[in-house]
Amino acid sequence: MVDVQEISPRVGDVLLMVGTTKGAFLFRAPATRGRWERGGPHFPGHAVYAMAYDGRAGRRRVWAAPESAHWGSLMRSSDDFGRTWSGGGEATVRFPEDTGKSLQRIWAIAGRDDDPQRMYCGVEPAALFESRDAGASWSLVRGLFDHPHRARWEPGAGGLCLHTVLPHPRDPQKIHVAISTGGVYRTLDGGATWRTAHRGVRAQFLPDKHPEFGQCVHKVARHRERPEVMFLQNHWGLYRSDDEGENWTDVAHDVPSDFGFAMAVHPHDPDTVYIVPLESDEFRCTPAGRLRVYRTRDGARSWEPLERGLPQEDAFETVLRDGLCTDRLSKAGVYFGTRSGKLFASTNGGDRWRLIADGLPPVLCVRAAVVASSRRARA
Hints:
This protein is an all-beta fold and 379 residues long. It has 2 helices and 28 strands. Helices cover 2% and strands 40% of the residues.
């Protein structure tokens, strides 16, 4: 029997949700972020590729998507920071029988800021599901599933996964998704129709370097206050778009490699973006054994390495696509986890780092949130 530790976050605390190959962990710290308390493991022995926090409409809900050997991937939620979890015998995210598909993995969980009942999840095989009742039930977004490109999408090394969901912060009809290896797709009508949005992004591994679709996009990020500007980490390639993904420009300057997975935007500065370059697709470790996060503060015109507090010798680490994130405090925190089970944090935008956990199972995803008062507390 695994001993599961509990945590009790307070209003204003930072909550870190860490999914690993062997379960989920929750970390809490006060706003100073000087000392961290760990909870978990939740779902011990199950891989957790996606986690999220829903603080909308007075909720304080943690979402996780553990993989069960018996039931497959499940959507589970907790309103008491892991003491109890909803969900049980059967998954609520299911492909309709007529599709002939079965759910293999849940890769992404996202909500709309302008509609506290609306949620999305991206899954493998690549598809998008929508909930209109805050996650109580889910339905397949048919417009994307029935897209004529679908039959020719090919799986990447991680499978045929829809791993990034970006609802527009102000227009409920607009959503971007990223698929490996399909590319970036965009809807302007709430999901009824979709078209590609990756012109200029190359597919280095194909004879035609700029096909209509088939780009292996690893991550897409943007700032909620400037959604027309987007940044993209590709399977070889680092890009910026100024027109919501219609056209992309290569911005791989001052970086040791344009291969990588993780990408995150600063919560208060849309020109500040973080990435973790890896050596290559054949050697997916930090270049030269130096663990460095790269930051741009001018919209990707230049990049600088951030290494204070990070190991710079024999640190052949790997950070996966969802292993990097930021919080929303005024002095923003930046966090990332590695496949060797290390969890690092910076409380000053990346200028200096410290190790806050070691010996975890391989880290698959890291998500941060600031705990707000609940509906009951406000009432």
